[in-house]
């Protein structure tokens, strides 16, 4: 089972900098072959189909805990896209073509198929596909694939970082470079436990340290690259048999944290009238509120009369 919280993993800068093409680039980190939907669903189905999980529990626990974090990464990238899109068009009468600026946006689905929000597509508008999921059933092969997948994801994050200077996008990409790096090291250590081969000697791939990226460096300074969360108060503690020792890049001690990290409020997405989203006027909102109060038997507080 999964437990959900009304939070996101980091605080995303809320800036007035509409950039539809930045949003298009970040879409690759959501619905691309190496995007967060791919990492999530690879690990999700590997966890569902894991063989001999009792005998191989530390590996099962590792994949289960990383799966839970990847759900949060899908959420985080989606909100980064939404922040980049905010304000790209403005409300107006239909004859004034209020969506006219969208003609020059590289990713028209944001405006035609959605209400200017994240979608399960890559940066070129190709829908995410389950063909991106690899689940051989062979533990070493799956771990090796996951290591490669995380390295590929890291490469794409670095490229997207270099494609846009949008503060919301860079904050999220910087954080994900650090947390994705944790998963690279985790799968490398798992392969070493399973085979005896020190895969951590290959890290980092590409050979550029996260400290070269300002937004990533600040998270590493807080030790975010050394922590692996169980995402459960009671389960998956055996990841400590794999996530131990020191980080291969700076020799910082690794730490297993029970539960989930501290979250932050999810940004509010304002109405986009030109997209008919959410399509509820102020008068209709008041009517909805009145009906909810009536259904909940909630009465307005009486005014206090002072002598």
From TrEMBL:
InterPro entries: Ferritin-like (IPR012347), Ferritin-like_SF (IPR009078), Mn_catalase (IPR007760), Mn_catalase_dom (IPR039377). SUPFAM superfamilies: Ferritin-like (SSF47240). It comes from the Bacteria. Transmembrane segments: none annotated. It holds the Pfam family Mn_catalase. Belongs to the manganese catalase family. This is Mn-containing catalase.
């Amino acid at each position: 089972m999964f437990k959900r919280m009304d939070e996101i993993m980091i605080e995303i800068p809320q800036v007035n900098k509409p950039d539809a093409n930045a949003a298009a680039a970040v879409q690759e980190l959501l619905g691309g072959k190496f995007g967060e939907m791919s990492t999530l669903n690879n690990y999700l189905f590997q966890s569902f189909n894991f063989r001999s999980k009792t005998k191989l529990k530390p590996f099962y626990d590792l994949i289960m805990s990383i799966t839970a974090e990847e759900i949060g990464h899908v959420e985080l990238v989606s909100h980064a896209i939404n922040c980049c899109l905010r304000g790209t068009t403005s409300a107006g009468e239909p004859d004034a073509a209020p969506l006219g600026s969208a003609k020059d946006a590289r990713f028209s689905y944001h405006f035609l198929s959605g209400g200017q929000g994240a979608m399960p597509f890559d940066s070129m508008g190709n829908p995410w596909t389950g063909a991106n999921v690899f689940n051989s059933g062979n533990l070493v092969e799956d771990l090796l694939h996951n290591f490669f997948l995380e390295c590929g994801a890291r490469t794409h994050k670095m490229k997207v970082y270099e494609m846009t200077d949008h503060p919301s996008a860079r904050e999220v990409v910087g954080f994900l470079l650090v947390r994705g790096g944790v998963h690279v090291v985790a799968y490398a250590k798992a392969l070493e436990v399973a085979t005896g081969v020190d895969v951590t000697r290959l890290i980092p791939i590409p050979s550029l340290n996260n400290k070269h990226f300002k937004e990533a460096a600040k998270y590493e300074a807080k030790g975010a690259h050394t922590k692996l969360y169980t995402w459960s108060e009671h389960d998956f503690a055996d990841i400590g048999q794999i996530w131990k020792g020191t980080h291969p890049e700076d020799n910082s001690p690794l730490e297993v944290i029970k539960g989930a990290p501290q979250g932050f409020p999810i940004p509010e997405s304002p109405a986009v009238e030109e997209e008919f989203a959410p399509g509820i006027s102020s008068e209709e909102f008041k009517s909805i509120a009145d009906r909810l109060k009536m259904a909940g038997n909630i009465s307005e507080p009486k005014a206090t009369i002072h002598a």
